[in-house]
Predict the structure.
Amino acid sequence: MPSDHPWLTRLAGRFIAFEGPDGSGKTTQFRRFTSACAEAGVTVCEVREPGGTGVGERIREILLDHAHRDMTLRCEMMLYMASRAQLVEQRIRPAMAAGQLVAADRYLASTIAYQGAAGGLPVADITDVARVALQGCVPDLTLLFDVDEETSASRMNPLLDRMEAKGREYHRRVRKGYLDQARAGPDQFRIIDAARPAEEVWRSMMDSLRRRFA
Ligand code: TYD
């Protein structure tokens, strides 16, 4: 069957990150997007953070475990970044070199929004660590699924993990941290209004991508 979105083939060799607060619906859109790419004949390397490698999945367990309430903010930031360093070397760079599309469910913008804007770490400290960990491997485009706190809270699973359980005020700062990054880097980011029904969010996201790459 021919693809509904033949222009997706232009994304081969690119790196797209999906970002947004918990409950923004980005993972639903991410899954639909990777299926549409596969239908269009694009080989997609899908990665999720924290995790995406054997080492990264172990780091993920530590990060999301309620037993580690005493984890310091610097430790938390460096664990996210350590998982990402492994992901870059083991999966992202090889996939891009092979001409695949890399689609990431979260990346560096998450650390700047969560540990930086919401947690309180200076963004310069995070970008210093990112320079060492990522060695310049950054997305061609980051899609920010923006949603107000009321809508995102209503979409969250009542069984919250350690990060989701941090409360309203923390999540309000996460949202602002994302929006500030997007406004500071309009070439690298597209803001998608994710409070709307999923079908509308999908159309607006695909429009943004088509305009940028087709
Ligand atoms: P996950 O269950 O994967 O959430 P989601 O489906 O929303 O991506 O959990 C990831 C959690 O980790 C989420 O609350 C965001 C947080 N996080 C950070 O705080 N910093 C980071 O650098 C990353 C990648 C995630």
Q: What stands out?
A: Residues 6-213 form a domain with the Rossmann fold fold (CATH 3.40.50.300).
